[in-house]
């Protein structure tokens, strides 16, 4: 008979103390500062902000430090903190066409106006460990050029001018807010995009990869990937006009996908769209691929049964905080449930043994006759 284990208050306090000690590590090593995390682990900070749905590099750095580098735990901390914040209004939609780009590439037009801006990227590195970093060597300053002044129109605008890409319908309807209302299926595209942008990067990447391997026939080109800062404006009722309240670093991706046309529309390209906080280009590209796969119904395409075409499957499993909570709850006490299961197994085993014994008795009696 198992007996329920009682976790006392002192045991929990000691566990917390041990956790704090493990987080700090060897005290002979200098403690990490939030500035170090924010500046030198910026991609981790960006992921925590994106999946935590809160743009604050300082808080994201604090969450990473508190979580010992466990990014999902850090995202959990940020989501929890976010619920304590008052909501005092909504900003105007950001205009990514006004982005001050640090990176802008296109796989469809080599000589697009504004040019290709490679920016800080791993794309052309050799993926070899740089042991100079272990020696804490200083990094030489990167060469600087003159600031760009020419406009950087979206690449898909050139396809728009030729009319060979599907026009996105404009609407003045306020989009739903998945942070304020429970998600109900079917889900419109605005809410789907919200869910994908805060979805787990690994999961969204896996779904996107599946589309490239043929599970949705979703061949895509990266029409444009741009990263940079955009101003955030908000209309203040007392003033009667919009004012700039800050800047966000965003990654935006537009994919260009094939479309064979329908009875009402000629053959043309269609789009997938991704927009994520910070420099998070793998996530933005993945999001755009999955977005395009989920649009099969509105584009009148065939549902081939691919997982990436199933909105309920994708969106219900993309949230790593919900997934973590449901997965990890099974390590919490389930003594009563287990006792019930255990009693059931014992009863079944006893009944099976009795049936076996009875059959053996019948066989022996028949043999004696």
Helix and strand composition category:
alpha+beta
List low-confidence stretches. Answer: none
- Rounded to an integer in angstroms, the radius of gyration calculated over CA atoms is 28 Å
How many extended strands?
A: 4
Report the portion of residues in β strands. 5-15%
Describe the structure.
With 369 residues, the protein is α+β, with helices and mostly antiparallel strands. It is built from 13 helices and four strands. The protein has helices spanning 9-24, 34-40, 42-52, 57-66, 71-82, 131-134, 156-162, 189-197, 201-212, 281-294, 311-318, 320-328, 335-368; strands at 100-105, 220-236, 241-259, 268-277. A hairpin with a 4-residue loop joins strand 2 (220-236) and strand 3 (241-259). Helix 3 crosses helix 4 (57-66) and helix 9 packs across helix 10 (281-294). It is globular, with a radius of gyration of 28 Å.
Quickly list its features.
globular, 41% helix, alpha+beta, 369 residues, four-stranded antiparallel beta sheet
Walk me through the topology.
Blueprint (H helix, E strand, L loop, with lengths): L8 H16 L9 H7 L1 H11 L4 H10 L4 H12 L17 E6 L25 H4 L21 H7 L26 H9 L3 H12 L7 E17 L4 E19 L8 E10 L3 H14 L16 H8 L1 H9 L6 H34 L1
Antiparallel strand pairs: 1-2, 2-3, 3-4
Nutshell version of this structure?
The chain has 369 residues and is of the alpha+beta class. It has helices at 9-24, 34-40, 42-52, 57-66, 71-82, 131-134, 156-162, 189-197, 201-212, 281-294, 311-318, 320-328, 335-368; strands at 100-105, 220-236, 241-259, 268-277. The protein has a four-stranded antiparallel beta sheet with strand order 1-2-3-4.
């Amino acid at each position: 008979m198992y007996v329920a284990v009682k976790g006392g208050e002192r045991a929990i306090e000691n566990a917390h103390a041990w956790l704090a000690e493990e987080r700090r590590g060897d005290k002979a090593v200098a403690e990490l500062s939030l500035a170090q995390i924010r500046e030198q682990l910026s991609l981790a900070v960006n992921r925590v902000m994106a999946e935590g749905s809160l743009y604050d590099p300082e808080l994201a750095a604090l969450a990473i430090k508190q979580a010992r580098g466990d990014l999902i735990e850090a995202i959990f901390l940020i989501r929890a903190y976010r619920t304590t914040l008052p909501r005092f209004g909504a900003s105007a939609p950001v205009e990514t066409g006004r982005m001050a780009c640090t990176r802008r590439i296109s796989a469809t037009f080599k000589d697009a106006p504004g040019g290709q801006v490679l920016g800080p990227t791993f794309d052309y590195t050799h993926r070899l460990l740089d042991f100079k970093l272990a020696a804490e060597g200083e990094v030489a300053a990167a060469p600087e050029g003159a600031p760009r002044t020419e406009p950087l129109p979206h690449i898909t605008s050139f396809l728009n001018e030729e009319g060979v890409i599907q026009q996105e319908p404009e609407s003045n309807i306020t989009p739903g807010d998945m942070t304020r209302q429970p998600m109900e299926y079917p889900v419109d595209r605005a809410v789907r995009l919200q869910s994908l942008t805060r979805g787990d990067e690994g999961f969204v990447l896996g779904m996107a990869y599946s589309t490239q391997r043929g599970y949705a026939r979703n061949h895509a080109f990266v029409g444009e990937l741009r990263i940079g800062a955009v101003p955030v404006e908000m209309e203040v009722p007392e003033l009667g006009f919009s004012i700039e309240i800050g800047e966000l670093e965003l990654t935006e991706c537009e994919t260009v996908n094939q479309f064979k046309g329908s009875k009402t529309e000629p053959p043309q390209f269609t789009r997938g769209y991704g927009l994520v906080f910070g420099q998070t280009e793998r996530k933005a590209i993945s999001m755009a691929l999955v977005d395009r796969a989920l649009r099969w119904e509105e584009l009148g395409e065939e549902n081939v049964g691919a997982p990436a075409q199933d909105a309920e499957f994708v969106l219900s499993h993309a949230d790593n905080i919900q997934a973590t909570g449901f997965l990890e709850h099974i390590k919490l006490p389930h003594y009563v449930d287990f006792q019930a299961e255990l009693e059931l197994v014992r009863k079944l085993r006893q009944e099976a043994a009795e049936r076996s014994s009875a059959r053996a008795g019948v066989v022996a009696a028949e043999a004696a006759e």
